[in-house]
Amino acid sequence: GDSVTQTEGLVTLTEGLPVMLNCTYQSTYSPFLFWYVQHLNEAPKLLLKSFTDNKRPEHQGFHATLHKSSSSFHLQKSSAQLSDSALYYCALSDGGTGSKLSFGKGAKLTVSP
Amino acid sequence: EAAVTQSPRSKVAVTGGKVTLSCHQTNNHDYMYWYRQDTGHGLRLIHYSYVADSTEKGDIPDGYKASRPSQENFSLILELASLSQTAVYFCASSGTEEVFFGKGTRLTVV
Fold first, then answer.
1. Which of A90, B19, B66, B93 is 20 to 30 A away from residue A67, measured at CA?
2. pLDDT tens across B10-51, in order?
């Protein structure tokens, strides 16, 4: 079945340094890929989603590129901010943007001054 | 913005007791989901539904039942709560676009 492998556990960065969270996937079909972000005591929210036309999605300074050849959808940001501290999940869906998601195990990003 | 409301927001249950977690959405979405969140496991799908009066098993359905009496409401039922079911539970809904999550229910089984 579908599965997602992502950077997991604790990731600690100093403010201003680049952010890179890895995500690779396995799927029988051509899935949609997503990054969700969850701040402390809040619900997970959609951060980015892949486009069918290979455009690079961007939001709040974050971007990710879907590489079908390497089955990857890494999350990047050029300069980390304190407010980026949160839990990040990579997820995939093979049924479109509004169908059930398979999540990775999550990475807790902590940005320090 | 899309609204998914869960109740209760936290609960302490006794081992062997019955627990019902409720979810209500006002988004007119067809799909609803129950996920469980545990440190080190991420979010895992328990049950989901794409139409009222019908539910489907997700990846970890054992020990859980689900009920979808209407398009707006989706419940998760633990008939015999166990210590291993201590976790945070998220309900979510979706149409043809993104999935929207509720704020979660923190369940502690003692």
1. B93
2. 999 999 999 999 999 999 999 999 999 998 888 999 999 999
